[in-house]
């Protein structure tokens, strides 16, 4: 599963560069929310370059492969285990950092849009109408950006979640087996590495989901702002109707971060994963206990 995640990341970094460019270009064009349609030069950030991330990943993995055998000895059977574990550590960390940072950027964009819209609370009707139309365009642009985000990172998020679930089940089974086994030759070093690996994987995946959830929560704040502005205007007035149209757009085009549309990326998903894991762990303990 870890190899599949790595292969998918390589595929998107090598053959899907247009999606990377599209995502960061769309984000850069929203740098100034008051000038949505202003054309400006987009500066290139090397740290957001897929090529840079690919080269950095290969160098670190190559260094790990060279370091582990020299430290542990060529005859040690655990060299491959430790080395591949480090590779998965780094891969999950790299993907989580990239996805989490992009999600935080989107969260800040939604925050800028909300602040921009809220500034029209004490403006006249004409300014509010223009501002509402501008916010509507901004929100529609953000919907497109999130769709690009899901297209680019959805496969990785899906595989990371699937890999995390499979690893939890695998190491839970190993842990329960060692708890009820009378064999003195149990590989506790391998078990400890597996537990640490799962904990770190849950942390990185949880941080990613938390960042995406922050962006969703911030995008929903615009609904409260719309209701707040509507209260200051008659029902059949033009400002009220423009805000109503904006509300319709927000309700019909909700911001959703998904893993290939299989599940949403949110804090509740993380809690569901932990709860399901705890349930399986208890079932495994009861199963082995009943066999003794």
Automatic annotation (TrEMBL):
Pfam families: 7tm_7. Keywords: Cell membrane, Membrane, Receptor, Transducer, Transmembrane, Transmembrane helix. One of its GO terms (biological process) is sensory perception of taste. It is found in: Cell membrane. It is a multi-pass membrane protein. The chain crosses the membrane at residues 46-67, 79-106, 191-210, 270-288. It comes from the Eukaryota. One of its GO terms (cellular component) is axon. Gustatory receptor which mediates acceptance or avoidance behavior, depending on its substrates. Belongs to the insect chemoreceptor superfamily. Gustatory receptor (GR) family. This is Gustatory receptor.
């Amino acid at each position: 599963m870890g190899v599949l995640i790595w292969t998918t990341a390589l595929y998107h970094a090598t053959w899907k560069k247009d999606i990377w460019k599209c995502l960061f270009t769309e984000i850069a064009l929203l740098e100034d929310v008051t000038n949505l349609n202003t054309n400006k030069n987009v500066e290139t950030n090397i740290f957001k370059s897929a090529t840079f991330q690919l080269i950095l990943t290969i160098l670190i993995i190559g260094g790990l492969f060279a370091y582990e055998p020299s430290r542990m000895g060529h005859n040690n059977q655990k060299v491959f285990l430790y080395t591949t574990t480090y590779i998965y550590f780094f891969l999950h960390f790299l993907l989580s950092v990239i996805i989490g940072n992009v999600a935080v950027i989107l969260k800040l964009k939604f925050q800028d849009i909300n602040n921009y819209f809220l500034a029209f609370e004490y403006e006249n009707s004409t300014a509010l109408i223009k501002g509402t139309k501008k916010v509507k365009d901004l929100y529609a642009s953000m919907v497109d950006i999130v769709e690009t985000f899901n297209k680019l990172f959805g496969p990785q998020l899906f595989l990371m979640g699937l890999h995390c679930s499979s690893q939890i089940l695998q190491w839970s089974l190993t842990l329960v087996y060692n708890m009820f086994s009378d064999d003195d030759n149990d590989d506790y070093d391998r078990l400890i590495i597996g537990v640490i690996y799962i904990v770190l994987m849950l942390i990185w995946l949880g941080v990613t989901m938390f960042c995406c959830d922050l962006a969703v929560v911030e995008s929903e704040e615009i609904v409260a702002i719309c209701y707040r502005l509507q209260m200051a205007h008659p029902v059949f007035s033009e400002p009220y109707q423009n805000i109503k149209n904006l509300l319709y757009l927000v309700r019909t085009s909700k911001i959703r971060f998904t893993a290939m549309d299989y599940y949403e990326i949110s804090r509740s998903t993380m809690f569901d994963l932990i709860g399901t894991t705890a349930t399986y762990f208890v079932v495994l303990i009861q199963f082995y206990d009943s066999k003794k």
